[in-house]
Amino acid sequence: MSLSQEIKDFLQEEALTRFLSYVKVHTTSDESQAGVKTPSSDNQFDLQRILEKELQELGLQDVELDNHCYLYGTLPASPGAGNAVIGLVAHVDTSSAVPGDNVKPRIIENYQGGPIGDFPEDPNLQITYNDSPELKKFIGDDIITASGRTLLSADDKAGIAEIMAALAAFQKYPELKHPEVRVIFTPDEEIGMGTAKINESKLPKFNYTLDGGEPGELEAECFDAWGAEIKFQGISVHPGFAKNKMINAATTAARFLAAMPDFETPEHTELREGFFHVTSIAGSEESALIKMIIRDFEVPQNEKRMEYLGKLAEYFEARYQGLKIDIEFKHQYQNMWVVMEQYPESIELAHKAIEMAGVEVDQKAIRGGTDGSKLSLMGYPTPNLFAGGVLFHSRKEWIAKSALLKAAETAVHLCALWAEK
Ligand SMILES: [Zn+2]
Prior knowledge:
This protein is an alpha+beta fold. Helix content is about 30%, strand content about 25%.
């Protein structure tokens, strides 16, 4: 079933208007409050209160904004739909990497290709094909950017606007079938705390986050993630009398790092390649500490990396008699695929819905973790669908107008498919 032009026009208008209004609300989350309080910044409530009212206007039931800034609502199934229930999830906060206050979206109509410049608040800023080869696919489209001083916050206000547009279409066009839909808007995704205070009793078994990039993206896999702390215990002796006695922990730690694989680092890897990534090093003659993260999609690959570090430590202890190296590994999160692979239908329906919206599916593995991966590992399979934005967390962030429509269409089709179950 393809949607009528009237419904598409409606979805486009709803998604665009709502998006342009949501981006103006300042919702930057606060990294320094991660694990201290939820929400990490009170301004996230400002958008949630607006959305709370809008969900009520759209006929959702049990709309609830709780003390931790999670917003829930339920759209009852349309007549004749089956018993399936799905959750549509998006986050209200934005990254603190770039200012997110006073966002002034601007629309470049009928984009003709080439670099995008003339940012009103930073004339030197340019988005080029180098930054964003995706631009070439949107010639003739309308492109939305911020003003040069802030991010745009398509991550993830595009996701929110697209979900709201789908809900608005369900209200206006009763012929669009949908199952019971739970809407879940979360705070603090950008600081890794988006599911910290989520109310599991509000979650259906199957959910989708709308938090991915360009049209077609579908993600059901994320990294298998480990942290490692490598402690070097040296022997400190007065440097004037240190011959054959001192073992300098700081310099041995530096040599240890120099013996790591040169190209297994974030700056030399992409797609399904894993890496070691040193996040900090500190030390003196007496002791030194290297912190790193280890990432891969395949568990055995990470096991090999950990084994490598263990062997390297043994070698260093043999090479520098008296040096002690202790390594502590901590599993940070699992690849969500271990859960997703048990529910292939949830991914198949997403595939179908994207194709029904006339977009080619680009199934990818997420080089990081998302709220969807956390929810999946909590037992709620949650693939991530595209929301349409590009160059997240930067002043160059942009989204094409048609991407808003395609994601909203995908949400409508996805609901129709689940209603048939
Ligand atoms: Zn996001």
